[in-house]
Amino acid sequence: MELIWKSWAPKKCQFFIWLAVHKRCWTADRLERRGLPHPTCCVLCDQVEEDIQHILIGCVFAKQVWFQMLSKVGLSVLAPQAADTSFEDWWIKVDKLAPTVFRKGINSLIILGAWMIWKQRNDCVFNEVSTNVQRILTHIEEEAHLWCLAGARELARLPVAND
Fold this sequence. Notes:
Layout: H1 2-6, H2 11-21, H3 28-33, H4 52-58, H5 60-71, H6 87-97, H7 103-127, H8 133-150, H9 153-156
């Protein structure tokens, strides 16, 4: 997927997105197939079985994060909807619908959002942290600022990066 490598983001985040798109992340569904211990339900919402698509766009927690994050740049209508079941397909749709002037920044923001949702999921699994939409949004804003300082010029043009 070209969007991954053409978007500005730290390499570890791009690699994570590549893993997610290729369904290679160690989520409960993958652990179960290998007979390894795993959570029975999504640790973010405790509603359904966990897979990477659910974590990134299907989970009610993730949907709230995307809606709030995209609202800050005036694009809440692009937040994942119930019909969106594939992170990759949703991202391609957002890329096509986002205003051209903001497209590169939005793509970096999507990588950042997915990365932070994944980190929140891992904090819940490994550190028994509870989910908190406002806390993750604050972390996203702080990380966006750091990415801008590191060279994400297009991300800097978005209001979320300038708070």
